[in-house]
Every structure is written in structure tokens, then in C-alpha cells.
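Customer escalation, tier 2.

The customer says the design service returned an amino acid string that "doesn't look like it belongs to this structure." They asked us to rerun it and document both sides in this ticket. The original C-alpha cells are below, unchanged.
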């Protein structure tokens, strides 16, 4: 799965950032990349919407923590179904919807690792506290792939040890 760029970020990313995510997805598609997300709310959902709106579902990949689509947030399930119906791909995980918290957390982190292992770059949209997204950024940095981070407000901050290893764009206000 070469030439995939992961587009990930905070579940709390406000809808006002959806156009920015869409522009990034459009730019990546224009450069011939496939786009991967994790199928969560916020940035992931905005990336899925952009793929669908731009008629690029076949170039989309969702790395799921779940063994079935019923694990996705209810508002994301239709997007995932549409992506698949239009030729996109979902790579299933190991979590059973309604499973114990430790298994779900393990599957979420595993999803993030699989996405990074398949990607040749990562774009992250951070809003507020984004532990899962920062975990994914750390995985990408450790793997040595390019990382672009958008700081999108609500106290989003970036660990000092990663600053020199990523391109950071402050988008507190659009």
C-alpha cells in the first residue's frame, strides 16, 4: 500500500475545520496519493467526507479498530458504507463493539500503528488534548516518514521533543 498519506486528528475538531481538511485531501489526491483515515469522528470523518465529495472513494482507505462496521460511530457508518460501495477499502481490526475497554484501546492503538506502517506520510489535525493523534504522530516520527501537524485550537499543543521532526502549522483561527 505505497503512496498512502494518513489524514488523522482529534475527534473534537470542530466542523469549521472541515474545509481545511478537504483542501488537504484535495491536494493529496492531486499529487496522486491515496488517503487513509481511522474512521473516527472529527478529522477522520472530515477526510472521509472529502473523499466522497470529490468522487475519490476508490482512493480511500479506512483503518478500522473494529471487526465490523457496527463499531464505527453512528454518524460515520454511512460514510464508511458509501466509501466501500464506491470502491474504497476498509481494513478491519480486532475490537468487538461493546468489548471491554482494554481490548478496545488496544485495537485503537493497533489501528494507528497499522495506518502508519502503510503510510508514506501523515497529516494530523490537533484540537485540544489529542492523545491518540499524538500517539500516531510519534509512531510516524519513529518510522521516519514526513509529518505535517495543524494546531487547530482549544489548547492544542505539541510536545517539544517532536517540534524539530515535524512541520507544524498553527491554525488557531481560520
Amino acid at each position: 500500500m505505497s503512496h498512502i498519506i494518513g489524514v488523522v486528528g482529534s475527534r473534537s475538531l470542530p466542523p469549521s475545520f472541515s474545509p481545511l481538511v478537504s483542501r488537504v485531501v484535495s491536494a493529496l489526491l492531486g499529487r496522486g496519493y491515496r488517503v487513509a483515515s481511522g474512521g473516527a469522528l472529527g478529522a477522520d470523518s472530515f477526510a472521509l467526507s472529502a473523499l466522497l465529495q470529490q468522487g475519490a472513494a476508490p482512493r480511500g482507505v479506512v483503518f478500522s479498530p473494529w471487526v465490523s462496521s457496527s463499531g464505527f460511530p453512528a454518524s460515520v457508518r454511512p460514510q464508511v458504507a458509501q466509501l466501500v460501495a464506491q470502491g474504497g477499502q476498509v481494513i478491519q481490526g480486532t475490537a468487538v463493539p461493546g468489548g471491554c475497554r482494554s481490548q478496545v484501546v488496544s485495537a485503537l492503538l493497533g489501528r494507528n500503528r497499522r495506518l502508519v506502517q502503510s503510510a508514506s506520510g501523515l497529516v494530523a489535525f490537533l484540537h485540544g488534548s489529542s492523545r491518540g493523534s499524538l500517539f500516531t504522530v510519534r509512531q510516524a516520527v519513529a518510522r521516519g516518514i514526513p509529518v505535517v501537524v495543524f494546531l487547530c485550537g482549544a489548547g492544542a499543543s505539541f510536545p517539544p521533543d517532536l517540534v524539530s521532526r515535524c512541520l507544524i502549522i498553527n491554525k488557531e483561527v481560520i
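Tier 2 assessment: The sequence is consistent with the input. The chain has a mean pLDDT of 93. The two ends are 33 Å apart (CA to CA). Sent an explanation to the customer and offered a walkthrough call.
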